[in-house]
Amino acid sequence: MKNTFGNNISITLFGESHGEAIGAILDGLPAGFEIDLDKLNWEMEKRKAKGKLSTRRHEADQVHFVSGFFEGKTTGTPLTILIENTNTRSQDYAQLKYRLRPGHADLAAFEKYNGYQDYRGGGHFSGRLTAPIVAAGAICRQILEAKGVNLATHIQSLHGISDDNFASNLDDLAKQMADLNQKEFPVLNMEASEKMVAEIEQASVNLDSVGGVLQTIVTGFPAGVGEPFFDSIESTISHLMFSIPAVKGISFGEGFGFANLYGSQANDPIIVQDGKIQTQTNRNGGINGGISNGMPIVFQTCIKPTPSIYQKQHSVNYQTKEEVILEIKGRHDPAIIHRARAVVDALCAFGLLDLWMSHQATTSFEA
Amino acid sequence: MKNTFGNNISITLFGESHGEAIGAILDGLPAGFEIDLDKLNWEMEKRKAKGKLSTRRHEADQVHFVSGFFEGKTTGTPLTILIENTNTRSQDYAQLKYRLRPGHADLAAFEKYNGYQDYRGGGHFSGRLTAPIVAAGAICRQILEAKGVNLATHIQSLHGISDDNFASNLDDLAKQMADLNQKEFPVLNMEASEKMVAEIEQASVNLDSVGGVLQTIVTGFPAGVGEPFFDSIESTISHLMFSIPAVKGISFGEGFGFANLYGSQANDPIIVQDGKIQTQTNRNGGINGGISNGMPIVFQTCIKPTPSIYQKQHSVNYQTKEEVILEIKGRHDPAIIHRARAVVDALCAFGLLDLWMSHQATTSFEA
Amino acid sequence: MKNTFGNNISITLFGESHGEAIGAILDGLPAGFEIDLDKLNWEMEKRKAKGKLSTRRHEADQVHFVSGFFEGKTTGTPLTILIENTNTRSQDYAQLKYRLRPGHADLAAFEKYNGYQDYRGGGHFSGRLTAPIVAAGAICRQILEAKGVNLATHIQSLHGISDDNFASNLDDLAKQMADLNQKEFPVLNMEASEKMVAEIEQASVNLDSVGGVLQTIVTGFPAGVGEPFFDSIESTISHLMFSIPAVKGISFGEGFGFANLYGSQANDPIIVQDGKIQTQTNRNGGINGGISNGMPIVFQTCIKPTPSIYQKQHSVNYQTKEEVILEIKGRHDPAIIHRARAVVDALCAFGLLDLWMSHQATTSFEA
Amino acid sequence: MKNTFGNNISITLFGESHGEAIGAILDGLPAGFEIDLDKLNWEMEKRKAKGKLSTRRHEADQVHFVSGFFEGKTTGTPLTILIENTNTRSQDYAQLKYRLRPGHADLAAFEKYNGYQDYRGGGHFSGRLTAPIVAAGAICRQILEAKGVNLATHIQSLHGISDDNFASNLDDLAKQMADLNQKEFPVLNMEASEKMVAEIEQASVNLDSVGGVLQTIVTGFPAGVGEPFFDSIESTISHLMFSIPAVKGISFGEGFGFANLYGSQANDPIIVQDGKIQTQTNRNGGINGGISNGMPIVFQTCIKPTPSIYQKQHSVNYQTKEEVILEIKGRHDPAIIHRARAVVDALCAFGLLDLWMSHQATTSFEA
Fold first, then answer.
1. B144-203: per-residue pLDDT in tens?
2. Which residues of A96-123 are buried (b: 16+ CB within 10 A; e: fewer)?
3. Does B109 score more than 90 pLDDT?
4. Which terminus of chain A has a smaller tally of CB atoms within 10 A, N or C?
5. ipTM passes above 0.95
6. How far apart are CA A334 and CA B244, in angstroms?
7. Are A30 and C76 an interchain contact pair (Cβ–Cβ within 8 Å)?
C-alpha cells in the first residue's frame, strides 16, 4: 500500500523535504504505553546532521504528536508524528528542477510523476523522510525493550575499513550493544572508528562521498515468530530496509558469505545449553525457515555513498534533453551511514514488533 | 498476510512436502490470456530435480489447473494450481520428528507450532512449495513477455567459481539471455559451467553441499514503476526472494560493492542516447529511489548450501532435550542453486507485474 | 485483495460451479486445534440443497483437506479445503452463454471479463462457492465456541411472514439458539415456520422464488473488540455478508428502524447488573463506535429472491444484441434463505475471530 | 488495517475531537490533478454545523494540505489533509470521563483502551473525524467527475417523513442531482424538506434528536467494475459507510424491500436501448454479482438519531460502577443526517475510485 506498511501495527509516511512538515502515523499501538521522550529524542539525535561529517542543513527535528498521545501515554488510536521543516533553502534547488542529479531518484521520479513531483531537495524521496521513521521506530523499540528485546547497529565496514565483530558471548555482547547505543558514531573498535571518520573527512575534502555496511543485532527476541513464506522475518526486515533511501543490499547471518561455505560449515550445530535448545554457532543469523530460532537476529545492510556530491557530473536537462554539466549546490553529507544506523534500528524495531504481534494474535487462540 | 502476497495480482501458497498435493492460487489475472503450456512446463523443467546434481526424489510436478482456466485461457477469476505429491517416502522421516536437522527450520517450527506441524520432509517449509511458485510465476512471465519485458538469471558464482558478466550492449545481452533461458544449468561461460558442475559433484561425493549467488537481469521494463518507500522495487523483490527457502542475501546493481566506492564512482552519469535519456553505466541496477529508471534491472540473490547433507551432525532431540548424532536419510540435493534460479525468475516476474499493475491503476486516471 | 479477506486469519476462495472442484484456503489458524468433523459436516448439511425447497442439483459437498491438517489437528499452516463438483450437467447451460439471465451477474460478468469467464452455472459467481465458505467458517466457529462464543441465525421474515423475536433473557436465548442450530429450516416459531415452508412451495409451483431477512445473534463475545473506523465490527461483518451472492442489505441492532426513533428511544440506558456494566436494552446490537460493548451482537441480512426462476423472462443475447425470451433450464432453488443461513453464520464466525485476533495482537503488548 | 483503507488509493485517518488537529492522508492519487478548492470547500460547507439544526460548536474546518500538493496540483505522493480544532471547550467534558454516555462509544472504548483513550468530546470516535474524510472524498469525487461519473444523496426519509424518489429518466435525474448538490439540506421535495426541518427543530425543543435514511445515486460509472466476492462493490461501499459514526444499516437497490418480492418481480428485465444493453428497471441498484452493470448505482444508508441529547439519561460511572443520572452538557446536533450526507458522498467517491483503479490495473494487461 505504497506509503503504508504493517499488519497489526502500521506506519504511514508523508511529506517532502521542502514542504512545511514531514511526518508519520503509527497505528495499532497498545493503549497506555508511556513514551520515554528522552529516549525517543536520543534516537532522533543519532540521525541528526551535525559536525563535519554531515550536511550543514541542521534541522531541529522536533517531534510533535498531533494525535494518539494523551497525558504522557499512547491512547491506542493513531499516533501522528509531525516534524516541521524549518531550515529550507529552496532557492538552492530552483535551478535543478529539470537538471537530473545522477544517483538520485530524479529521472525515475520524472518518469513516474510526469514532472508534477515536488522536486525541491528530492521532495518525497528525501532522506529527511527518515526522521519520522526514526521517531516511530523509537516508540516500537521502547515497547520491545519493555519485553526484554534489545538491538544495536554498528558500522561493520566503511570504504574498506572494518570494525570488530560482535562478541559471541551474550554478556560481552550486551555490553557492546549498550555502548554502541550511546555512541553517535557507532563503531566498536576505537581505532577503526577514527579511521572511518578520517576517511569521511577526506571524502568531504575531495568533494566526494563514501558508503559502507551496517550490521544489526537483536537479542531477547522470542523463538517461533515469523512465517514460512511471505511474512518471513527476512522478507519483512528486507522490505523495510529497502524503503530506506541509499540501501542497496541486505543479508542475514553469514549473508553472501554462504556462497563460499559447504553445507557442513553453514549448518549451525544444535546443542543444549543451560537447559535450552540452541545452536552452537549462529551462521543463520537467528532465523531458519523465515522464523526466529531464539538466537540473536543478525543482518547486514549496505548503504551506498551519498549521491549528492560537489564534483561536476555529467547529466541531462529533462526538459530540453540536452546534456549538461551539473554542479550540485545545496548542503550535503559526505557520508550518511552513521545517521542511517538510527533508521535501520527504527525499522528493525517496527518490523519485529509487527511480526511478534501477529504471532500473539494466533497463539492467543491455541488450546 | 502470511501465505498470500501481492496487491493487484496476488499469490497464495499451500501444501506440505508429504501431503497429497501442493499448490498456489493466482488471483487478479487479466481475463482471456492464453497460457502457453509448453513454456510453462519448461520453467517447471528447470526447477525439477534430475541427474547427479539433485535429489533422487523425482516428482512429475504435473501442473493442474483446478479453476480460473477455461478453454485454454484465463478467466480472470482465481487460477488454482495443483501439483500432486506422488513420490513421497514418508517413512524416511518418521525417525526425524523430534530430531532437529541443523540448518533447517525444524527448531523454529517446533517453537512456532508446538509440534503440530507436519514434520515429514520439512512439511510446509519444504522446497517443494517452490514448484507452484514456478508455475504461477511462469504465467506472470508470459504476460510480461507479451509486453516486451524479458528476464534471465545465471549463476554468478558457486563456491568461489565465477561466471562471466552480463554484456552491457543490449543486443549481446538479449542473445545471452535467450541462451540462458534455454539452459538447465544457467551459466554464461562454458568453462565456468563445467567447473561448477564438477564442484557440485565433488560436494556430493563428500556427502556435503554447496551454495552460490544468482544474478538476475530484466530488460524492457518501463521507467517510472515502483514507489518511493514501502513499495519500492527493491522492497517488493527482496520480500519475495526471502520467501524462497535458502535465500540469505540480496543486493541490487553494485550491491555490497557500493561499500567500497566513492559517490563519484557510484553515481551513474546521465546521458542521451538514441533520443532517450538513460544512464551511461548501470551501477544502480535500473532502480533509483525505489523506481525503475528504464535501464535493465539487476539483482543478486545468495543461496546458502542445502542444509540436508549426509554427514553426521550434532543435534538435539526436541522432546527429550538430549543431544544426538544425526544422520539424515531421505534424498537430498548437493546443490539447489541451479533449480532455485527458476524460482527467482518466477517471483521476479510476479513482483514486477504486480508493481506495473499498480502503476497502471494510478496513471489511468492522470489527465 | 479480490478473493482473499482477513488480517490475522484469512480466507481465499476459488473455483467455478461446473469446474472440477471449488475450495478455500484458511490461513492463520492456531496450530493444534482439533477440528470436530461431525460438527463441520452438520454446518455443510444445513447449506445443502435437499427436498422440495431447493434445487435438485444435489451435491455431496464432501469436504476434503488438502493441506494444513495432520493427525486430526490443524498444523498452523494454510488449511486447504477442496470440494469436488460431482453433479454437473453443463449441457443445461450451453445455450445460455450469451443469453443473459436477469437478476444474475451475467451482464456484469461479460463487461468485466470480456466473455472469457466460465459461464456454466454462473461460474465463479455461483452460490456453490459458498460451500467452502461454510466449511472454513465452521472451523472458525469451533474456535470461537471453545472460547465461549455462540451464534445462531433465524429467518426473521420471509415474504411477509415473520418469526418470533429472540428472547432478551440470556438463558431463554441460549435455549433458542441451541434449538435453532439443530434445525435445517431455522425458524423459532413453529407456525411461522410452516407458513414459510408453504410460501416457498407455492412459489415453486408458480415457477417463482422468494427472499427474506435473516437475523443473527452472537453471545459471549468480549467487549472492547473492533476499531473506531475502517475495522469496525459493522464494517467487517457487512463486508463479508455482501460477499454472499443475493445479499442486498444489512443492518445492526434496530437497523433501519432507527430512522423512526428519537434519540431518547435509541440510546440504550447503561446499568449495572450482576456487578457488570451493561445496557438495559440492546437497540445498538452490541456495538457502539464500531466496538463490541459486551451485549449480544445482533444483525439482519436481507436475501433477495433467487434470480433463477422457471418463468419466461425478457432478456438479450449479448453477442447479437437481440432481445430474447429466456426460459432458464437447469435446477434451481425457489428459496435459498434457509441455506444462506449457514453461510451467514460461517462468515460471521470468520469475521469476529479475525477481529478478536487483532485485538489480542495489540493487547498482548499492554503494560 | 484499522485506520487505513483502500487498495490502489488509500485513506488513513487520525486525530481526536479535542486534540490540536484532525486529518487524513490520501495516498495513490494520480500526479498533476488540479484540485478545485472551491468545490472542495463546498463539500466541507455541507458537512459544517450551522443554524438551528446543528451543534453550536462552529468549526472553521479550514482544510490545509501539509504534503502532496504543489503548485495547485497533486504530486502523486501522499496528500496530507490537516484541519485544526479551534473551538474546543474541553471543560464541558471533564466531568464526563467516567460517566458513560448512552448510545455513544464510551463503554466500548473503556473496554478497549483501558481508560487511556482521549475521552474529551468522544476523542477519536468523534464525528469531527468525518471532516477530513469529506475533504479526501471531495478530491476523489473531482477525479470521478472528470471521467463523467456523478453522484448525489438525498434524505429519503426522516422520522417518518419521506422525500420523492429519484427520477428514472436520466435527464430528469441529472437535473435532480445537480439541484441536490447545491442544497445544504438535501431533499428533493420542498414540502417534505420543510416538514423535515420542522421535525428536527421540534426534536431540538424537546431536548431530543432524530435520524433517518439517506439515499445515494451514482451515474456514469462504467460497467464491469468490482469483484465477485470480497471486493464486491457492495462490500466495499458498506465497509466504508459503516466507518461513519451513527450508520447502522445499508442496502442496495430495493434493499430490504427484496424480502417482500417474488423473483419474477426482483429480476430486472434486460433490454437493448439506444444500442446499449441495459436493464428496464433497476431494482438491483446497478450491481449484480458484486459488479457494476452500467445502470445507476443506488444505495440507502440508515443514520441513527444523534446519541448526544440534553435529556437526563440513566447511566453508570465506569470507575465507581455506580448508577448515575447523566445530563450531557456540551453542544450537540438534534440531527446529523443532513451533514452525514457529505460524508456518505465522500466515502462513496473514494470507494468507487479505488475499485475502478483496481479494474484498470488488470484490464491494462488484457490482450
1. 999 999 999 999 999 999 999 999 999 999 999 999 999 999 999 999 999 999 999 999
2. bbbbbbbbbbbbbbbbbbbebbbbbbbb
3. yes
4. C
5. yes
6. 37
7. no
Residue C59 predicted with pLDDT over 90: no
Residues in a beta bridge with D15: D22
Over residues A46-95, the pLDDT tens digits come to 999 877 777 777 778 999 999 999 999 999 999 999 999 987 666 666 66
Reading phi first (left if > 0) and then psi (alpha if -120 to 50, else beta), residue D72 is in: left
Classified as helix, coil or strand, B112 is helix
Cell of C256: 433501519
**Chains in contact with D, where contact requires at least 3 CB pairs less than 8 Å apart:** A, B, C
Q: Which residue has the cell 435438485?
A: C56
pLDDT, position C90: 62
More confident residue, D5 or B57: D5
Q: Which residues of B315-344 are buried (b: 16+ CB within 10 A; e: fewer)?
A: bbbbeeeeeeebebebbbbbbbbbbbbbbb
Of D294, D297, D270, D293, the closest CA to residue D281 belongs to D270
Helix (H) / strand (E) containing A65: strand A64-67
Q: Give the pLDDT of residue C89.
A: 67
- Cβ-Cβ contacts under 8 Å, A353 against chain C: 365
When the pLDDT of each residue in chain D is averaged and rounded to a whole number, the result is 95
> In this prediction, what percent of chain A has a pLDDT beyond 90?
89
CA end-to-end span of chain B: 34
- Say if residue D171 is exposed, middle or buried (CB neighbours under 10 Å; 0-12, 13-18, 19+): exposed
Q: In Å, how far are C229, C273, C292, D8, D93 from D101, measured between CA atoms?
A: 19, 17, 15, 38, 11
Beta strands in B189-318 (DSSP E): 212-219, 247-252, 270-273, 276-279, 287-288, 291-292, 297-303, 312-317
C149-175: per-residue pLDDT in tens? 999 999 999 999 999 999 999 999 999
Interface A:D, Cβ pairs < 8 A: 160
Chosen for mutation from C5, C158, C202, C238 (greatest number of chain D CBs closer than 10 Å) is: C238
Find chain A residues with C-beta within 8 A of D19's C-beta: 66-67
- Over the stretch D222-242, which tens digit does the pLDDT of each residue have? 999 999 999 999 999 999 999
Q: For chain A, what's the residue count?
A: 367
Tell me the three cell numbers of residue B238.
Answer: 527482496
CA contacts within 13 A on the Cβ side of D126: 28
Distance, CA of C219 to CA of D73 (rounded, Å): 51
Q: Do B302 and A13 touch (CB under 8 A)?
A: no
Residue found by looking up cell 565456468 in the block: B192
Cα dist. A120→A85, A277, D218 in Å?
A: 13, 54, 40
Residue in D30, D361, D366 closest to B366 by CB: D30
The three cell numbers of residue D21 are 488537529
Distance CA D148, CA D132 (A): 24
Kindly state the DSSP code that residue A89 receives in the 8-state scheme.
-
Residue B52: its pLDDT value, please? 74
Tens digits of residue pLDDT in B302-315: 999 999 999 999 99
Query: Which residue in C279, C291, C304 is closest to D105 by CB distance?
Result: C291
C361 neighbourhood in chain A, CB within 8 Å: 8, 28, 357-358, 360-361
Nearest in space to C12 (alpha carbons), one of C24, C1, C28: C24
Min distance D140 CA to chain B CA atoms (Å): 11
| DSSP conformation class of C149 | -
Q: How many CB atoms are closer than 10 A to CB D338?
A: 28
Helical (H) or strand (E) element with C82: strand C79-84
Instruction: Give the residue among D249, D217, D216, D226 at the shortest CA–CA distance from C301.
Output: D249
Please say whether the beta carbons of A131 and B297 come within 8 A.
Answer: no
